[in-house]
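Q: How would the structure tokens look for this protein?
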Amino acid sequence: MPDGNESEVQAAAQLYGEPFDSGFAQAHEHHMAADFAAACAVYGEMLALAESIEDSPDVRFLRAHVLCDLAVVLLTASDLPGAEDAVERSRNLLDGIASAQMGPQGRQLWLETVLKTLIARSDVMSRTGRLDESLACLDEAAALFPEFEDPDGLRAAELGLNRVLLLMNRGEWGRAEEQATLLLSTTGATAAETVPRLLTALGTICATTGRFDLAEDYLARADDGFRALGDTGERQTLLAHRASLAMERGELDLAERLFAQASAFFEEQRRFGDLAVCEQARSHLAGLRGDAVGASDLMAASLDRFQRLGASVAAADTMLLGAQHAYERGDIEEMKRLAQEARDVYQAREIHERCAQVDLMLAGTLEDNLNRTDHGRHETRSIDTALSLALPAALALAAARHDFVTAHARTQWLQLADRAMHLVFRLAVRRQDQGLLFELVEHRCAGAALALGPGPGSADGHDGPSVFPDAGMKAYGDDGPMALGGVAAEAAASAGLRVAPPPKVRMSAESGRVALQEFIAAAEFRYRRRIVDEEEVPFWITDELTARPVVQIRLADAGDLFMTWTWAGGAQGFGTGHGPAAEVDRAVRELAEALPGSGEGTAGLRRAFESGALADHRTERQLARTMAEALWPEGLTAQIRQVSERAGRPLVRIQPSPRVAQVPWELLAVDDADTRLIDLADVVTTAPTSLRRQNTAQRAPEGPARDPGPVVLVLDPRVPGFRADSPLGSVLGPPGSDPELLSLVRSRLDAGAVEPSLADPAEAFRRTDLDRDWLSSVLRKGARRLMYVGHVGGAPVEGGQSEDGTLHLSCGPQTVGLTEAVRTHRPLSAKDLLLGTLPLRADGEPGARIWPAPPRVALIGCESGGDLRFAESFGLATAMIHNGAELVTATRWVLPTSFAFHRLAGLPESVRPLSEAIVAVDAAHEDRDPVHRLGRWQREQLDHWRADGRIEHSPLLWAAMTCIVV
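A: Here is the predicted structure in token form.
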């Protein structure tokens, strides 16, 4: 074999001598220029010449090298049978000389060619649907790496890229994204050829999972990379990816134009696999445009090409598309045939979630048929059949989100997955199955659990999820503790929260039934997907609530708004209800128009005061009635009245869905006489059930009023770099200027220990030493209460990451944390409170150990309880519950300060509504029953509002307050 003492550059340039060295260079140029026929011709000439030379280990290695490179070109040209033949011949030759004598450099050349051959073989196996064999090739290649010298990281990058592509071909979008992102951050400039391909993969992943802007950014960067490499073929391939993105966005004309351009190129270059992908997508486009004939012709062409190439999974995808077209033109038997054939392929290849895609399509066609025709006495059986298909598949699709690393990605994925769950709810309503609706809501409200370890895998032990493919461009085309620093630290800080599946929700202590248990079992068996965690939680806790009647209400968004309720504590009964989506959306929209919006600043507050419905008693009453009519069942009001008459004022525990998380339930006008819900009951907000198992703090039921430890007061801390009159300036005014707040601090000093240590009540305000380290030290020592009054930075709901919500303490920019600094200040985020220093240090601690929360916490700041508006509640309020709090008082929306009342509403400076609210929360947290005490104050405010309609009694302030428990 070639070996010697030449330098690496010399070896690369003069490996075999002429004409082979120049032949390899010429074939590579043809490949980069997308002239695949010319490249294959050069390799064919070299192979014929090599086979004419007297046989020896060196000559066999040369032939293996030629065949390996030829296979790569044939793969690009979509000649899968030819590529497989070349790969197998190359591998046989390499195996035949494995024991031949060779020097160190020769061994490295042999290893490199073996790696290239295994990677190429993996690609062939993946494209032809033999995914397990593809993975085996990559595993075999990885086993050779310890012996291989890869100073430029090129082969490692190629291996990583092929793992990403295989995950994509399996539909494992979450794991594929995680690995591609990590690989992109660690691939150096010496492996530049891999970078644009990684960017293309990330663009495809984001387009498929609903993150279109990010997908476009990745594809633009990939185009820049291919241009720098001079890779004309891959730049043309990007046209198809951009077309797929345009189709996902609904830009059908652009998609059609780009697919046509890409198709012309692929046909010219005889890249029939990529051409078939384009035809498949164009068939879908034709169907969307109502062109049944064109859709059928393109589908048939795509299917024929895939079958001739041996791309079985891609062919099955086309069959599934054909099944949809067959149903649309009324050919039910053809639909069934194509769908079953596609499912058989997916089942044989163990691509379980694409089996689920077939099941969802069949369930959807059943529902559509039920809407079109009268099934008579067979209707119940038809609905049952549709549910048996749709519900397990919908559960598997929803569970796939747990493998995405960021909440943003999971939220975007859920928008796709929710379509399947909406189908399930519609079928349950059609069946009039109150028990099933109840269990659906309970399961949906359980919530994801924070996972501090590795992400979940599938039920059969394979790592990662399998989720549905995109209809367009798929991947079958082409010593001691150590602190992290630099790029690694930045990557750790930017990492999202991992989540685990929700707990099993136990519906009955007697029977042991778990919500949806037969459907969960079916989903885990059919699709090899873990749906729920092994841990169980009861859907209802009664041990500490039996002293008074309690009704637990949970709401779930599934197109319409679905509600369940259950009575306990001396009252019995349960019920379900749902509000039509249009009515719910209208009520929520009217409420949003009445509130100061996040990020609007003074303009939003001015609008709320001047024209918002909550600033005028007449319009507020009308809004309260509108919300009640859309969101609240009359039958539940009647039950509350009956229970109240018999057993006293009940407690209403409400777990809102994200869509209605800002609704002030206390305000609902439940009848035409202006009776509000808070007139009839005390109201408390409940967090998702999954938090129940994570909050392990056990305290006496009498609460912190008798617990030892100080009250921790964080009152309007000074934020470094911000003046008192700036956006992060004072919220309470100059220290010592508010007698009500001074009296509050004095009463706490008189009652016991207070942190920070104070010689005078005025010293509690605008302090500069209240940073996260100080907060950790006082909470670790033990505290009975925490009251924070100050700035809260809300996370944008559309971003999906509630953990980005922040508290603004006195932390400087040098403070270590998981959120970016703002000028000379680093906020304390909910992500910090949850993850602590785990992402930053090998010996890191979780947030619950660094900032253990006392039993009662008050977070009085703008939208401090806004995390319930997110699909995953991991914001400030729920982070405190996760860290041990039993009750958190927080706010639903942006709070107007007393200064805002003075400046924008003309209120005298002697009247301080925010101060009054702070005092009321403080008094409630000292009470044995804080929910009742806060509710009593809110009823007093409501009475004043009804009597005089003065702005200081407007629900704009006091109705924002809610107590959150688990």
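The longest strand covers residues 550-558.

The longest helix spans residues 407-431.

Upvote if useful.
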